[in-house]
Design goal:
It is a single chain. The chain is mostly helical and 133 residues long. The chain contains six helices and two strands. A two-stranded antiparallel ribbon has the order 1-2. Part of the 50S ribosomal subunit.
Length: 133
C-alpha cells in the first residue's frame, strides 16, 4: 500500500518534515482510508500516525565555542569575577583542611587556628606546605 499522500498530509498538518512522521504498521488499513486533513488529525490523536520527537545535536558535534583571548571583551575579572575566584579558592582550602583533620594530620585545636587564618593562603599547596606534613 502506498501511503505517501497520507504521510505528506500528516507532515503538513503537524508542521513537521516527512522524516518525523511515522505510521503504525498495525493500523496501515486505517491510514490508507484517510483522505482529508480532518481524517489525518483524527489518526494523529488516536496514535495511528505518530509524530516523532525532534532530534537534537550532541554536545560533541556542536560547533566549538571560540573562547580564546582574542574573543574576550571586558576586563580581567569579567570572565571569572573576583568573588567567584574567592569562593572557588576558599572552598578548596576548607575541603583540604577538613581532609587533613579527618586523616589525623592536624588536631582540632590546629584545625580551628588554621581555619581562622585560611584567607591568608593562596592555594591548597601553600596550606600543605605550612602544615608541613
Amino acid at each position: 500500500m502506498d501511503l505517501e499522500y497520507q504521510k505528506k498530509l500528516a507532515a503538513k498538518v503537524a508542521g513537521v518534515g516527512l522524516d518525523r512522521v511515522r505510521i503504525n504498521p498495525e493500523k496501515i488499513d486505517l491510514v490508507s482510508e484517510a483522505v482529508t486533513r480532518a481524517d489525518i488529525r483524527r489518526l494523529i490523536r488516536s496514535g495511528a500516525i505518530e509524530i516523532l520527537q525532534k532530534r537534537g545535536i550532541s554536545g560533541a558535534r556542536k560547533k566549538p565555542r571560540r573562547k580564546g583571548p582574542g574573543s574576550r571583551k571586558g576586563g580581567k575579572y569579567s570572565k571569572l569575577p573576583r568573588k567567584r575566584r574567592w569562593i572557588r579558592k576558599i572552598r578548596a582550602l576548607r575541603r583540604e583542611l577538613r581532609r587533613m583533620k579527618e586523616q589525623g594530620l592536624i588536631d582540632s585545636k590546629e584545625y580551628r587556628e588554621l581555619y581562622a587564618k585560611l584567607s591568608s593562603f593562596n592555594s591548597v599547596s601553600q596550606l600543605r606546605a605550612h602544615v608541613g606534613r
